[in-house]
Amino acid sequence: MRSLRLLLAICGVLLCAPAHAQVFVRVTVAPPVMPVYVQPVVPGPDYLWVPGYWAWSGEDYYWVPGTWVRAPEPGLLWTPGYWAWRDGYYAWSAGYWGPRVGFYGGVNYGFGYTGVGYQGGYWRDRVFVYNTAVTRVNTVTVTNVYSKTVIQQTTVTNVSYNGGPNGITAQPNAQEKAAMQDKHVPATALQNQHQITASKTPALFLAANRGKPSIAATGQAGRFHGAGLIASKGSLAGNPRVQKVARGPGSPPKEVVPRDRTRTASAPKRFVPHTQRNSAQHKQSP
Fold first, then answer.
1. CB < 8 Å & 24+ apart, contacts of 141-149
2. Residue 206 and residue 140: Cα distance in Å, rounded?
3. Which of these, 58, 37, 166, 162, lies nearest to 111 by C-alpha position?
4. How far apart are CA 129 and CA 127, in angstroms?
5. Spatial distance between the Cα atoms of 178 and 190, rounded to a whole number of angstroms
6. Domain extents in the chain
7. How far is residue 21's CA from residue 153's CA, in Å, rounded to a whole number?
8. Which residues of the chain have pLDDT under 70?
9. Which residues contact 228 (CB under 8 A, 6 or more apart)?
10. In this structure, are residues 119 and 148 in contact, taking their beta carbons and an 8 Å threshold?
11. Which of 11, 112, 152, 170 is the most buried (most CB within 10 A)?
12. pLDDT score of 157
């Protein structure tokens, strides 16, 4: 086991650096499947969801919990990072902020990140409006909401990388290619600290959690103790090292959230991963 870890450390590049750092990371072992978890309630107006992801430490993968953060400036949206098979290695492409969501490998990170675009909300001037069909919102404290059902495709998988053996086959569409030319802003200091904290939390490493992290999401970035922590409910595949594709029927039930302001929070959402992609990126407004 020790020799295997040493080999992986030689083949990989340390990923404890901040998420935006221009560090080329390549690993010979496929990233684990995506864990299944529910989303914490948005803590307040104008917070955007940054989904969880698997990062590489130099010896093992570890889970960086999904969390809520504020954009560097109003109008910016988050494009998640993703793993992709390139020249015999799994390489990491870091996420970024921009005026529209770009390509993130077709990975279904859930909660509006269905593999293409983002359907969890949109900016209306300098105010973010949330889609309660896929986002957990306390409609007493956050009133800028709408409900628009997101139609899922029929192919279901929680594969976490693009290309390679059993990987997602999605390629950038026209809108995503155009988004690559936009001005991008790297992850914020709080996002970087969030990842660093995850890298120092033993329970988040694959060797310890076997693909089922005890902290899959946090209500507050960088906070890994106390209230607001969400545990994983497992994954669609039993072995976190084996990227199996589970195929199942249809779309999730349509959800309609009433506008009654006496309601405290929308029911927990569990995302159903998929790899099929629409030919065009979904609009960011309802």
1. 141/44, 141/45, 142/42, 142/44, 142/45, 143/261, 144/45, 145/257, 145/259, 146/286, 147/255, 147/256, 147/257, 148/119, 148/286, 149/254, 149/255, 149/256
2. 38
3. 37
4. 6
5. 28
6. 2-230
7. 34
8. 1-24, 152-156, 234-286
9. 40, 218, 219, 220
10. yes
11. 112
12. 77
Cα separation, 158 vs 1, in Å, equals: 27
Contact 106, 116 (CB under 8 A): yes
Q: How far apart are CA 42 and CA 38, in angstroms?
A: 12
Q: Mind listing the pLDDT tens digit for each residue in 227-242?
A: 899 999 866 443 333 3
Residue type, 264: T
Q: Where are the alpha helices (DSSP H) in 105-245?
A: 174-179, 189-199, 206-209
Please give the single-letter amino acid code of residue 195.
Q
Token duo for residue 188: 């914020």
| Contact call for residues 204 and 32 (beta carbons, < 8 A) | no
Predicted model pTM: 0.78
- If you search the block for the tokens 């870890």, which residue do you land on? 5
| DSSP letter for each residue of 213-264 | -S-SEESSTT--SSTTEE-----SSS-TTS-PPP----PPPP------TT--
